[in-house]
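Appendix C: a fully annotated inverse folding record. The material below is reproduced so that readers can follow the format used throughout the book. The structure is listed first as tokens, followed by the designed sequence.
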């Protein structure tokens, strides 16, 4: 049997000019994971990552801990299908469409625009994004010029993970650095749950968390979801 570890990237830089870069806290989360793995005797045969800066940055910081401890760390293999869904583009297309057709979305946008404190802006934006993404998953976007459909995006994630499993073979340790959306899709698929569950899970996945699967050529089993036992409570974040 092989083991597949899906890691959500460390905290990104919300409301910063470049959201995609890791925050200082996100860097801490990544290094702590690396130290926990190195102390635990983890040795990986393959390391994959999406192409987003926050995903690659997390993988590199974990790898640096391994290098410093003289533990082998494989060359990172990148695959854009492991990237997060394009939230900004979805908000710009479907969100704009829903503002004109959905009173709830219009009210949430107004609340976001009127928020002044960062904490209030974050909460109101999160609620707005949650509603828009739920409509995206359900396929209720007639008249919106979307960059990609939920079906195409989620199938891309599934195909990437299937390719990783097929290429890895038996008895291997595989790390995949990705985001909450793809991890939600992986769990939803493994449990044969409705698509909307992938979106719902996404909101509860911690930065720097680990979701673990065991697999062979005939099956894949979910062993662990959203594990943050390596992180202290004051470093737990969702966004």
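Designed amino acids, in order:
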């Amino acid at each position: 049997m092989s083991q597949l570890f899906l890691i959500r990237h460390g905290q990104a830089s919300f409301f910063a000019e470049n959201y995609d870069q890791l925050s200082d806290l996100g860097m801490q989360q990544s290094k702590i994971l690396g130290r926990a793995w190195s102390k635990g005797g983890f040795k990986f045969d393959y390391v994959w990552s999406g192409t987003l800066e926050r995903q690659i940055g997390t993988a590199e910081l974990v790898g640096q801990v391994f290098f410093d401890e003289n533990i082998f760390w494989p060359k990172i293999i990148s695959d854009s299908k492991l990237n997060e869904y394009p939230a900004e583009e979805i908000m710009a297309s479907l969100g704009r469409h829903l503002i004109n057709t959905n009173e709830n979305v219009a009210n949430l946008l107004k609340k976001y625009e009127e928020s002044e404190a960062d904490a209030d802006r974050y909460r109101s934006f999160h609620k707005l994004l949650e509603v828009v993404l739920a409509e995206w998953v359900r396929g209720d976007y007639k008249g919106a010029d979307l960059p990609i459909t939920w079906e195409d995006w989620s199938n891309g994630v599934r195909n990437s993970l299937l390719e990783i499993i097929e290429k890895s073979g038996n008895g291997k340790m595989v790390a995949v650095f990705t985001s909450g959306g793809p991890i939600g899709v992986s769990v939803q698929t493994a449990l044969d749950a409705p698509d909307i569950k992938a979106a719902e899970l996404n909101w509860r996945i911690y930065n720097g968390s680990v979701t673990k699967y065991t697999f062979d050529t005939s099956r894949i089993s979910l062993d662990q979801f959203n594990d943050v036992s390596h992180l202290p409570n004051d470093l737990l974040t969702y966004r």
